[in-house]
Each structure stands twice: as C-alpha cells, then as structure tokens.
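Ticket #4471: complex job returned nothing on first submit. Input attached below:
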Amino acid sequence: MSGALPLWLIPALPLAGFLVNGLLGSKLGKRFVSATGVGSVGLATLVAWSRLLPYFSSDHAPAVERVATWVTAGRFTAEIAFRLDPLSALMTSFVTFVGFLIHVYSTGYMHHDETDAGYARFFAYLNLFMFSMLTLVLAQNFLLMFVGWEGVGLCSYLLIGYYYEQPFAPAAGKKAFVVNRIGDWGFLLGMFGIVFTFGTLDYDGVFNAAAADPARYAPAATLLSLCLFLGAAGKSAQVPLYVWLPDAMAGPTPVSALIHAATMVTAGVYMVTRCNVLFRLAPDAMLVVAAIGAATALLAALIGLAQNDIKKVLAYSTVSQLGYMFLACGVGAFAAGMFHVMTHAFFKACLFLGAGAVMHAMSGELDMRKMGGLKSKLPVTYWTFLIAALTIAGIPPLAGFFSKDAILAATFEGGSGIDKVLFGVGLFTAGLTAFYMFRLVSQTFLGSFRGTPEQEHHVHEAPVSMTAPLVVLAGLSIVGGFVGVPAALGGSDRFHAFLAPIFLSLAGAPETGEPGLSHATEWLLMASSVAVAAGGILLAWKWYAREGGRVPERLAAAYPGVYALVAEKFRVDELYDALFVRPFAALARFCWKVIDVLVIDGILNAGAFLVELVGDLLRFLQTGNVRNYALSFLLGVVALMLIVIGTF
Amino acid sequence: MIGSIPLSDVLLASAALFVIGLAGALLRRNAIAIFLSIELMMNAANLALIGYGAALGTREGQVAVFFVIAIAAAEASVGLAIFVALFRHTETIDVNKVNLLKW
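Support reply: We reran it on our side without changes. The output follows.
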C-alpha cells in the first residue's frame, strides 16, 4: 500500500474543518465557512475514494493501519487503529459521498435565515459529525468505535437543538441524548463483557477467537449480543427506544437527512453486522433482534399512516426501515441488512432533502394538509421525490426493491420458528410503507394548492446547490440496487459476495449464504411484495390524489378512538412519561428536597452551628488584657513542667 | 571567681531573681515595669546558665548568654518602640486600659 493516502486522514480532515469553523468561523463569514465545511468533507471524500476504488477492485483483504497505542493497562491494550475491510469500505463509501452532498445542500438551505455565527456553528457541528461517523466505521476496535459512537450522539444532540430559541428543539435534543444513553449503557456493558471474555477489544482478536472455538464462547455470546443490541437499538431507534427519532426532526432538515436518516441511525445495524460472529453464536439473541426489528417496522409504519407533518412521516418511515434492517440481521441475512442500509441512505436522504426543498418553497410549512399541487411549481423536487418514494415502496427495478426483497426472502427462509410470522409482518409493512409514502406524495405534490395566498405567491424551486444533490441521490436510488441483483433475476449478487469476508465461518452456527430458496419461490415472493406495494400506492393515490381524502376522513370519523390512538403515536410517549420520566423526576425531586436540602445540607449546617456555638463561648477567653495572657502563659508552662516531671 | 561560689547558691539566686521578675511581670500594670521584669527574668536565666557552665567547666553556658543578651537588646528596641506608639495613641501605658483586641 505504498503511496496510498493513510486512512486516518479520512476522519482527520473533517476534524480539521470542525476546528477551523468552530474556532474562527463566526468571524470569517459565510463564504469562508462554506469553503471550509464543504471543502474538508470533499477532500475526505476524495481521500476515501482514492482508497476505496483500488480496494473494490482488489482481493478485499482487510487493511489495518495503526496510528498509535492509546491505552495500555496490564495485558489490555487499545490502539488507535483504522481498518479497511468490505464492511467499513461500504459504510465509508456512502457516508463520505452522501455526507458531501448534504454539505453542499446545506450551503443553499442554511444560507438565508442564519447569522454568520449560526452558520459557522452549523457547519462546525456537521463536520464534527462527519469526523465521528468516519471514526465509528473505520475503527479497528470497539473502544475507538465507541468514541465515534458517542461523538455522533453528541453531534446529534447539538444539531437537534440547533434552533435553541425554540422551546421544543432543546427538549428534543435532550430526549435524544437521554434515550441514547440507555442504549450506550448496553453497549458499555457489552464492551466490558467482551474484555472480560476475550481480554481484548480488537475486532480481529475477538472475532477470530470466537470463530475458532464457538462451543466455548457460545454461552457468553448470548448476553454480549443482547447488551450490544441494546446499544444498537438506542442508536438505531428500535422498539422500545425509538421515541427520540421522530422528535429529532426539530433539527434543520439537512441534519435530519444526514444524521437521522442516512448515516448515524444506521450505526446500530453496522455494529450488529460487525459483530455478526457473536450474534450468530447466539440464536436466542438473533430471535430477539428479528422480533424487535419486525415489531419496530410495523409499529412505526402504522404511526406513519396518521401523521400530517411531512418530516414526521419520513421520520417514522426511517424507524420502520431500520426495523427492516434489524429484521434482516436477526434472520442472519446481515448482507441484506447492509444492502438496505446503503439503498436507504440514498432514497431516504433524497426524501428528506426533497422535504427540505418543499419547506424552503413553502416558507417553513410542515403540515402537508396545507400543501398540494406543488408538482408544477417544484418540478425537480417532485420528480426526484417521486423516484425516491417509488424506491422506498419497493417498485422494481429501483434500488429499494432489491434490498427489501433480499430481506423478505431471507426472512421467509428464516431459521427460527416464527419466520413466517416475521415475513407476514414484513410484507404487510411493505404495503403500509407504499401507502404512507404515496399519501405524502399525493398530499404534497398532487391535487390543488391548499396553502395561503402569500405562500402560493412565494413558492419557488430551490437553488441549484439544493437541487443538484437531489438529482444525484435520485439517480443513485435508481441504479444503486444493481450491485445486488439476486441470482433469481439473473444477477450474481455481487454485494453479498463482496461482504462475504466479514462473515467468518462458524462450526454449528447458521451460515449467512445465499438464500436457499428455489427461484420459483423467490419470484413468487417478489411478485407478492411488488403487488402489495403497488396496491398501497394505488390506494393512496385514489384516496388522496383523486378523491381529496374523503374516505380516510370518513374512516377516521367512524373509528375515532382507533384514529386518535394511531395519530397520537399509540401514546407511547405518554406511557414512558408515566412509567419512567415522572417517577424519575419524583425521585430526583426527593433527592433534591429531602436528601440534599434536608439531610446533606442539614448535616453541614448542624456542624457549622456547633462550631459557631463553641466559638461564641470560647471567645470570652480573649479578654484583650495582656496580663491575662501572661497568666495563662505561666499556667501553661507550669502544666508542661508538671507533665515532664511526671513522666520521669 | 564564680567557680568559688557553690552551684546551689547561684541557682538559688537565679531562682529568686526569676520569681521576682515573674511576679513583677504578672502584677505590675505599668508597661515599662513589666518590661523591666521580663529583663530580670532573662538575666536570671543568664545567671543560671553561667553557673552551670562554671560548674561543668564548659563554655556553652557563656555562649548562650551572649545570645540571650543580643535577643534582649533587640526585644528592648522593638518593645520600647511599641510603647512609644502606644502612648501616642492612648496617652497611657497602663496595660489594663489597653484591651481593645478582644471579642
């Protein structure tokens, strides 16, 4: 690898951008901040691709580059080392690329309504995010991954709360931070367990040891996998920790696209795939992953049906798609899960950026009941959004079709007792996905305009810095799936073959090979998923675009209780509030009012009072009269002499 | 000379001087009188030191006396300066009337 640029440069460049923008940006103006923010990520993208292109065409041998030894404690060491293997190469490829596009988009989106300082702050955080995310995916051990893991969490918190003047945004940021902390607790426990079991946190050390002696490590693997999965569920917004992601939409839209759709939230899927050796040793944990994934996919899709905020629909859609990815991991199809991570990054980033373009045109309007008919006014946004919506719905030959089909096929084949149930849930959710996405498209772009006259006058297509990323991402949504065409459709599933080196073979654990289904069965599965998706699209189009939403309104009126329950997100937030938040708040208030104010302050004040009392009594010894002092001096000397004499 | 006087006599004289000084320091109210009494106690100590030195045939006792004399001189200069300053302020050197520094 002589002559190649070092891997550490990839995260280091955005870090440099963060330092420059964070320290100097507010004084140097927007032009400078844009150049630094976009430039550093652009350079990182170039460096990354200068390593990735040779790598994609090579034999995919993992490259590990050590920078320094970080921690040494007894026999335990952790290094700052970066790893280029198929999995990290895949993640790096789209994190850098999508990240770069979203930086470009942000220069247009954030330009108007921000002060120089706010603009610099935004790009500094965004660069810090890129640094953390790239550290996360390129790390060679769990500890360095955790640095990136916490870094992206911090940036997520900072950027959700970016509009800190509004009351809701900081609260949403706090919620995201606290919920993520629960997951991070699981991740930490998992890491402690790994150190305890394997004595190292290095990927190669852990996974090779586990693969070499599966029978020995299988019992520990269940607990380790579940702990790690708790971390993944927090970061990737799975039941029961998904509640932070919809609120995270309080942040600026490019942030929603980059962090809360395309990259950070998929870190959990990445981590589970990275640890596939441990998970495959633990069938029970895999079953939990699959069940949680399916439950999340269904629950979030149901909630998404009844949301009217355009970003909320997309947020629940993200939660739902993340559920699909975990479903894939849970049935052992890690490659299918990662495939969906990649295609999802393209189409969901496109959808969010499209939503941002709509908001930009509609003066910040988010309620899609007040939109409609934007098709002719925002043609570029409309067509790119439509392509991305068809992609997420799973219409062939768009990217989402291949990745979703791979997941459904793997689920159908399954390995556990409940795989047919999981498959049914997955298929049903696919229909729901198509329905809510086209409800969104119909209400936003089709029909007649329902906003105010001022808004109608103001509507305009976004600048080219915003539409160009949309077009690129829509293009990727179209072609991105062709890297993983399954054998049943005459492809060779190069995606799966590419990722194969990260799945170490294990004795007695399920393999993660090609689905063993016959081609006829696969065709049947594809046909059914396409039929379900098409049905959802047509129904949404008929109800919302042609009939103007009368049928859903009647349905909502006929079953007000059910509708209210769904529209209010199954009242999960209220449940958590009653179960956790308020008891904890009460406990905190008890600690404050009783333990701190009464007990701790009481002890302190009692001590001070005692000292004061004694001082009040003793101060009368200070008469100010020299002769008294001389007398006590004499008495002291006499006493000392008596003591000295007494000891002889 | 002093070697011809028995040590016990010297110590007796020294003790007598010391007790007189002590009584003066504790009982007198005039600051200068107290000061004189303290000098008296120091010289009682000097006498004891010389007596011991002569009885034991060593010079250390006499060396220590020189230190005590030097310190007494320094103390006298500081102490008298304080009394002058005190008198300027309060127009008295009665220590019973100078008791501002109290609770």
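Chain A has a mean pLDDT of 89. Closing as resolved unless it happens again.
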